[in-house]
Amino acid sequence: MKVMLLLAALACGLSAQSYTCVRIANDYAGKDVSATGVRLLNNPSVPWGGDLDEGHADDYPIGFTFQFYGQSHATVDICTNGWVSFNPIQGTLPYMPASPPATFPSTSYPNGFVAAGWQDLWGYVMSQSSGMFAQTVGTAPNREFRVQFNNMTKRQPPGGTMSFLWVFREADNSIEIHYGHITDGTVFACGLESPSGNEGTASADGWLLGTPVQTAYRFEPQPEIEVERAAQAVPHQGTDNIGTVTAGTATAVTYRVRNTGVGALTLTGVNLSGMVNCSVSAGGLPGTVPPGSYADLDLQVTAAATGFCSFLVSIGNNDLDESPFAFSVDANAVPTPAAEIELTYQSLPRQTGEVVTLGAFAVGRAQVISVRVHNPGTADLHLTGAPVVRLAAVQNCAVTVAKPPAAMVAPGAHTDCELEFTPTAFGPFGFEIALDSNDSDETPYVLHFAGSAGAENIGGSHKGGGGCVLDTTRGAGLLPPFLLLAAALRRGKRRRRDAIMPRPRG
Description:
This protein is mainly β. It is 8% helix and 48% strand. Strand 25 (307-317) and strand 26 form a beta hairpin.
């Protein structure tokens, strides 16, 4: 039965990740504070609860802030039965674990303790050197808080004594237990339990120990590494898809490395490997992340070309079971966003440099046409000219920009530009417009407009929307074009007849 309990104890101790227990050299004599420390028993200056049999020193100052299971403590309660508690000691004191180790860890009282020599001890039999003592020694940040039970008397069976001490270390929040003389045949409990009682760690030799004790123990707080991106956990040995990146452009990706354990997380380096269609560089991550804190790993990911890209990340650390913390990263690389400019007139795309034929118009009659500026690209189109639309090569007409286009056009959107021109004399006329932009290969974008000017009744006016609409209201008093043509034919016949048969004078 005892062998089975011992195996259960070892399993319990090894399964917990918040603390591990290792054997160290026993230095009870070197850590002794019985001659220099504060005597806790029968000391009016020490707040005490209970009696000398089942009693405890309450809220005894540690001398520095000590982290136990990730919680900060400035004081502890010290029980006569061989355990130190970070939870307040209240009610009846169990003088021995009821049936260790099967009931530990347990959420039943007590919780949040460190047991060094849990036995039925009492303080009624004392000598100058026997009893309970406490002292803080050293200088920051390497101080030690020592609690010593020296020659404490066993009540059952009577007559035996136990000597042991705790060392609470400021430097790394570890806890050491060293043993002096313990009466032969004594069995006692050694281990620690979380404040909630749902986790515990036995000594490296189990919850139950017996004489002779030839070693000492150190309970070391363990870190726990967790990695996340954008508040989403990244699994160890899993894959994180970062979505879309731009080929040829560095994309910043930040991973947050958290320490959710109770010991300092030591980071020993970041290894990047297995690059497929990309290059990656890393920055950030200090050497140590305290419990409850985090550090950011900053990556710069540059895809070489469009398509799938991936790489591996490995973070060296001192986590017990996730070292190194490794995961893969993949993404889809897309082309660099680019603006494109396209001009349409009368709903037809017009190439830069194209000559657009306007037709025939009346001299002196103002006309309005609309040119649409499209952005079929994937980035904002910026019209950068000053003015936005430049007019040039103006011949036989007066032309103005009646309504300039917007200076910025979002991808897939458009803006309209209205031009007003007035032919000034009979014959051909023309002008050109030029638009500068952030299009990489079509700036300036130039369109040439050409037409002819004639009599008042030759044409109408062009109105908006990129289309041509005859102004039938303004031309209601004019002859239709076929009548104009007939009249011209008649005039031509008359001139030829007059040339052959001149009219008599007078």
